[in-house]
Amino acid sequence: MKTIYFILYKEFLHIKRDKTILPIIFVVPFVQLLILVHAATFEIKHQNLVIVDYDNSSTTRNLIQKFNSSSFFDIVAFEKNINNSEKYLKTSEAIGVIVFPVDFEKNLYRNQQSQIQILLDAVNQVNASLTYIYCSSIINGFNKDILLKFADIGQLSNISQLKQIEIEQQFWYNPRLNYKIFMVPGILVLLVTLVGLILTSFNIVREKEAGTIEQINVTPIRKHQFIIGKIIPFYIIGIIELAFGLFLGKVLFDIHYLGSIFDVFVSASVYLFTILAFGLLISTFSSNQKQVMLIAWFFMIVFIMMSGLFTAVESMPQWAQIINYLNPVAYFIKILRMILLKGSGLTDVFKELIMLFVLGLSILIISIARYRKTVN
Fold first, then answer.
1. Which residue in 283, 279, 181 sits closest to 238, CA to CA?
2. pLDDT in the model for residue 100
3. Rounded Cα gap, residues 242 and 11, in angstroms
4. CA distance 96 to 138
């Protein structure tokens, strides 16, 4: 125990003296938190639209005004034909073109039916899908007003059909659909991962580059003492960063945490155990910091993109969901969102915690097996 204490003292002293580690630990993650929570969003606002109005009637002008008064869209140009509007899509000056055909108003009031064409830039398919949904919502609202107008003047006999089905929607856990509430737990996971995965592996490999690892190997320090002494400092730093991140989420983004903070830190301890073991494993495969960066960056990208941070895991192909069983980031993002946003307890996330612990234990066993002292 005394040996471990001296190793811990050495590690904290090294962290304190290293001018490059401290900013990475205490400055960079929280700058990322402030930036990414605002920037990483699927909400669309002020998307540019181009209008091609062949009808030029009062009805089309009213509907155009609906689009223009919405916070989702800005009308940037009015063109006389579709050919002139294509340049806006090619240059990405606009995300879509709305085309009103000739006799739009006449067909609408005479035949109670008309058409609108929506051309969308679908290079970014998520953005295009959301734009279509918002356009449809505005048009459906306008269409309902028209139907009510028909009913008032007696041109529509079956207006009662509109009242047969009523939809009452409730958004649980995020009533205002605030995207920051969804993003903050995910960004917090990335901050903890940065400390656990990259800095742990960097720290051990730095010993190899400096040659001090050889001095340690010839001492009576045992393998488990060395590993514990290397892991515990970054476990403590990870917990501190998570606590401070939760505080910033509460103060800056006004997020109401429904679950137990104790459950959060218990889950974080299991996650840190896993991710620290993974950092240790990377260090056993690397002989210098460049190799650490390449290997860690590869796994970080895969873990983040498949974690459910930006897209739902359930929407991924079946083979990707199977691979995700080996993704610790996906487990912790799900756990943190359930506890913080839904008020779930440890019993509700017990399956994820067990999977995370088993994954971490397996990685740790491999890491210890690969790390060998040259002198016993």
1. 279
2. 92
3. 20
4. 15
